[in-house]
Amino acid sequence: MFDTADVYSAGESERILGEAMKGKRDRSLVSTKATFRSGEGINDVGSSRQHLLATVDAQLKRLQTDYIDLFQLHAYDAMTPPEEVLSTLDTLVRAGKIRYVGVSNFSGWHLMKALSVADKYGYPRYVANQTYYSLIGREYEWELMPLGLKEGIGAVVWSPLGWGRLTGKIRRGTCIPKESRLHGSAEDGPQVDDEYLFKVVDALTRWPRRRARRSRRLRSTGCCSGRQCQPS
Fold first, then answer.
1. pLDDT digits (tens, 9 = 90+) for 189-226
2. What is the DSSP string of 162-215?
3. More confident residue, 27 or 210
4. 12-20 helix and 49-63 helix, angle to the nearest 10 degrees
């Protein structure tokens, strides 16, 4: 699945993806998003009917396709009633312009409120929640994960490497590599305490060594006893 959004490089990401999918659209899954401000106009932001209808049409044009597999609200719009948001998404689904709907950057109560409205009026239910989740950012497990399991909402995880901190290049006692994205964007992404980060990295570094030693012991025990063992 290719994931993009109207605000990624001011729409250029969608345009490039559209070019790349030429002749391969039927073998591609496309996910895109909207809600954040995408222009200077008063209606170029939010999840109002006017903004969503206009935005989806523009996205379809940039993507060079007649439908979006998964359309996600990029954030919660507290200024637009959920009834208006979901009725608009229902209109887009019925028109064949989008197939499934999801969200991103929603809290648990935002999501449950929307689901209750969808169930009440027969609007499409959100099937995906694009969320931050990594070994150094596990807040998703507190509320949104059990909610998703109960309500059948899948997770589309962003930044599983913790905003570039879990690539293996950042370790205790070393400097951030010159080419790291953290130099210019650390303040924009999820925050983490340095000591907690290093504890996680230390554990990840030790784990393969312990696994390798255990595998060698199992193979050795299997040979000596005549039993057939497979490394775990």
1. 789 998 999 999 999 888 777 766 766 665 565 544 44
2. TTTTTSSS--TT-PPPTT-THHHHTTTS----HHHHHHHHHHHHHHHHHHHHHH
3. 27
4. 40
CA distance 80 to 99: 22
Catalytic residue numbers, as ranges: 8
Is residue 30 within 8 A of residue 70, CB to CB? The reply is: yes
Structure tokens at 153: 């909402």
Edge-to-edge strands, sheet with 154-158? 2-3, 30-34, 68-73, 98-104, 126-132, 154-158
Judging by beta carbons within 10 Å of its beta carbon (0-12, 13-18, 19+), is residue 16 exposed, middle or buried?
middle
pTM: 0.84
d(CA 226, CA 176): 50
Long-range contacts, stretch 88-91, CB < 8 angstroms, 24+ apart: 88/47, 88/48, 88/49, 88/52, 88/53, 89/52, 89/123, 89/124, 90/123, 90/124, 91/53
